[in-house]
Amino acid sequence: MNIARPMLIRAAILHTSGAIRPYRRTQPLLIEELTLDPPGPGEVLISVRAAGLCHSDLSVIDGNRPRPLPMVLGHEAAGVVEALGPGISDLVIGDHVVTAFVPSCGICESCEASRPALCEPGATSNTAGTLLGGARRLGWRGSPVNHHLGISAFATSAVVSRRSLVKVDRSLPFDHAALFGCAVMTGVGAVVNTADVFPHARIAIIGLGGVGLAALLGARHRAADTLVAIDISDAKLALAQELGASLCVNASDPACVERIRAATAGGVDFAFEMAGSANAMNLAYRITRRGGTTVSAGLPPPDAPFTVPHVGLVAEERTVKGSYLGSCDPRRDIPRFIEWFQDGRLPVDRLVSNHVQFDQINEAFDTLADGATVRQVIMM
After folding, report:
1. Across-strand partners of 157?
2. Is the pTM of this model over 0.90?
């Protein structure tokens, strides 16, 4: 397809954050007709086929994570290549792709150190609401519209940097493929990359949304002996048990910490905080054993503090680590995680709670905010 001028698309645009719930009434996301400019150098036009709803989107809607507005949200998606900007020779029209929400420039200090999740130009462009090259390709009523994490997947089509895309097997269903762009990369990556969990380790996962349950699947893949699942939702705890958790504990139980420490002979080797909550992070640290590692891949509000007893950090040789994008290199990790899924070692399809229509997007974010779902996927 040759795109010489802007095309019209349908997209969910957020004009202001902090809307009062329920969103089905206040309608913070408006599905509007927008213009989409052709892809520039190093950019790709994709038709979006499936997009997952994530807390990172919700945190922009509710104002916990300020972003430049107006903005088209959505960062976890799968689609089909429709047009190529100048300079791209490793994709062809018709290729299936998954998005990665940190575009890696390949030449900054972090990228050269094989840590593309920390790409400095990628972080700068994501914060500014642009694509990696600094451009905005979205327009509404003659004014530019910001991109969410370089993707803006809640739209029928999107222009993204080539550095934000990974080519995938065409046989992979779009609703399953989309999850590899965020939930699976973040959750499985935290286990196999950030923590490098060893076989027979004792593991705890706090927060059983798409990322947390993906981490549980990753821990199973790493042959963890004891796998503790923690959440305030009994339904999610039941699903975690089906997926291999050996102990499920409701975080609202006043004896939660004592139960876990007793069941793990003093605490877990690795505790993963996936809820984006300071309280969850405190719980994760308290159930980590001496010499153990506490990993956070949740994204709390920017001003949320986390404090630890300094002497315990030293005397017990504790490790506290952050994990962004699962410490992944998307071009390396998305294909291998998909291979594990196709081999039956990583049942990612179990993370899809339901499919929603595009015009149900506000109601779907109510469901997400209520904690009543794992991963909802909009099918375009």
Report:
1. 47
2. yes
Q: How many CA atoms lie within 13 A of 157 on its CB side?
A: 23
CB contact at 8 A, 61 and 154: no
Whether the Cβ atoms of residue 188 and residue 218 lie closer than 8 Å to each other: yes
**170-215, pLDDT tens digit by residue?**
999 999 999 999 999 999 999 999 999 999 999 999 999 999 999 9
Domains of the chain, each with CATH number or no CATH: 7-181+347-379 (3.90.180.10), 186-324 (3.40.50.720)
The amino acid sitting at 352 is: V
Q: How far apart are CA 30 and CA 361, in angstroms?
A: 9
pLDDT in tens, 110-135: 999 999 999 999 999 999 999 999 99
List, for residues 124-167, the tens digit of each pLDDT value: 999 999 999 999 999 999 999 999 999 999 999 999 999 999 99
Task: Output b/e per residue, 130-162; b: 16+ Cβ within 10 A.
Answer: bbbbebbbbebeeebbbbbbbbbbbbbbbbbbb
Name residues whose C-beta falls within 8 Å of residue 315's C-beta, 6 or more positions apart in sequence. none
